[in-house]
């Protein structure tokens, strides 16, 4: 569970969206937040988790990632046998935590497509052990992305992939931006008054 940053401010719209997502009223387990670099996409989720006492499991997405990376790995024991170490997906599902896919649109379509089951609230099977994991009722998924609409700023974010419409429809979506100059100045004055 992240620590509370006493200086973090939620906008009213951001707070409403997070509470709606957390409540499960919409039946959508996923929240997709797009926006420019360092505008607070992930920190907003982390501060929400800090204030609600939720665990956060983060996945840094990249273009060569395979689904097995987020499910877990096989490790060798000292006696030569193997055992499975759960990855962030099964761990967050069991804990009822918040799973964050950082920059989800870096994932290749064949990898990110596996998330459809999670977003639909379905169970996943750990291939190595055969264990079927049902998601805790509090389990939620968040994804962040730059240039999600492949607009004019897409050239600034090389390596991003166009996301499948079926995947996008499974998310509540929101666009984050930088603080307005007056709010940023007020925040800086509170944090560092001198």
Short note summarizing the structure:
With 194 residues, the chain is an alpha/beta fold.
Features:
alpha/beta, 8 helices, 9 strands
- H and E string: HEHEHEEHEHHEEEHEH
Radius of gyration using CA atoms only: 18 Å
Report the average pLDDT across residues: 87
Q: Give a short account of the largest sheet.
A: 5 strands, parallel
What percent of the residues sit in helical stretches (DSSP H or I)? 25-40%
Strand content: 15-25%
Distance between the termini: 32 Å
Structural class: alpha/beta
Please count the helical segments: 8
List how many beta strands DSSP finds: 9
What's the overall geometry?
A: globular
Can you describe this structure?
By secondary structure, the chain is α/β, with parallel strands linked by helices. It contains eight helices and nine strands. The chain has helices spanning 12-23, 41-52, 67-71, 88-95, 109-112, 115-119, 165-168, 181-191; strands spanning 30-34, 56-60, 72-76, 82-86, 98-102, 124-125, 132-133, 140-145, 171-175. The strands form three sheets. A five-stranded parallel sheet has the order 2-5-8-1-9. A two-stranded antiparallel ribbon has the order 3-4. It has a two-stranded antiparallel sheet with strand order 6-7. A hairpin with a 5-residue loop joins strand 3 (72-76) and strand 4 (82-86). The longest helix has 12 residues, at 12-23.
